[in-house]
Amino acid sequence: xxRTEKNWKLLGLIxxxxxxxxxxxxxxxxxxxxxxxxxxxxxxxxxxxxxxxxNGRYFGNYTELLITRIxxxxxxxxxxxxxxMVVLPALISKTTSLGVYLLSFLLFLTVPANMFAxxxxxxxxxxxxxxxxxxxxxxxxxxxxIFYDKTPRxxxxxxxxxxxLGIIGQLFxxxxxxxxxxxxxxxxxxxxxxxxxxxxxxIMYLLSVIIGAAIMFSNGAYAKIFxxxxxxxxxxxxxxxxxxxxxxxxxxxxxxxxxxxxxxNIVLAIIAIFxxxxxxxxxxxxxxxxxxxxxxxxxxxxxxxxxxxxxxQISSGTTATFEAYFSLLFYLVLVATVLMFIPTANLKxxxxxxxxxxxxxxxxxxxxxxxxxxxxxxxYMFFVLFAVRTVQFLYAENYLNLRPLYLPIFALVxxxxxxxxxxxxxxGQASDARMKSVREQAAAGKQVVELERLPYQQYLWxxxxxxxxxxxxxxxxxxxxxxxxxxxxxPYKGAK
Length: 496
Description:
The protein has 496 residues and is an all-alpha fold. Among the domains are: 162 residues, no CATH class; 69 residues, no CATH class. Helix content is 70%, strand content 3%. The protein contains 20 helices and four strands. The strands form two sheets. The chain has a two-stranded antiparallel sheet with strand order 1-2. A two-stranded parallel sheet has the order 3-4. Strand 3, helix 20 and strand 4 form a beta-alpha-beta unit. Helix 14 runs parallel beside helix 16, helix 14 packs parallel to helix 18 and helix 15 packs antiparallel against helix 16. The mean pLDDT is 92.
């Protein structure tokens, strides 16, 4: 008991430090791209007309309106939701192991740079995607007991709580909205098959997410998208369903969904290989053949991008098709490893649910354009959830001793934290310096002012407006530069 209390105190401290880290990143991240519009009268005009024909991401829009106007609130919310994305997967895994919490943090620190830029490094992206991810995680934390042997019990207060949770959580981003309906239906069916009863909480949540989805998709923007009136967001109707899925997956989808997650893929492969080596014992000849094949795939795939593709710079239409199929194979091997070699039915179902959630979330993106790395942060989150839950199983069943791994994992976390802190310190200082320079030029009467690019722009989403592009005058207006000021974009010159 004493040891458990000490563990929770230590884990609480870790969670607080993660919160401080993401707060610092937010503090040093300047507003970029759409944030400038949201922070001015354009954002308020959208609010006053009820976001008519804009989108149904009402709570995402409210969040963006607030955090582009109140600096301390932006820092607080981005710190809070960033830390919740790390802590909640470990809580769902029902662990008090420091190693699992550190692993969760490490995996979120290794998100691809372009995904980081469009979520953690962009207030508008954060407002819609990170927030939606946390609402899904809270729901999963509540219903995680459907994967236990004991029949779930929910208090009346928790049952009431899921009503606003379900409605609000549906008003951030569309593919998460659709996913949550499917997931809540699965939870009801699974619980009925397993426990031979319906649970009021599950039903209330389903009704709530349906109401939330109805509110979202009642916005006129979606009718325009499907009718072809929206020139930015479109639904491709020129291809058949299977042709469209194939074409989208082999061109861009596989990269955002799987291949770009280099650090995550290495960890997933190590975990799966560990399951195959330690758990898959006393198996049949057929299973032994599959086991060997799985280990080969799990060894090669995570190293393909950093070593084979990175060293030899291989790139062509043919290799892209190969990479897409190889990525699909890697994913299917993870699923098959769970189905064939995880021993308990409950855990098998839980882990499969997390992996299937990845493709369920991605499915709507096959048909709607455009999409980018930000759309896949919730898919990434489910891979992390799968990883930490599997590690917790290995630890709890004494297949894996995590204690010797605490220091190496902590060292990797520390390395990434220091690297990010340095990068965003440089970004913040450069952003302050360039705005000081721009204002001094404007005060001196210059109508054409030089605007330096920021360092490490790969971690920010369009932090510098395009020369003569649509966001250049928005930038001028947002920062109250004299009317008629023109920007001349120049390269980053480094510390002066």
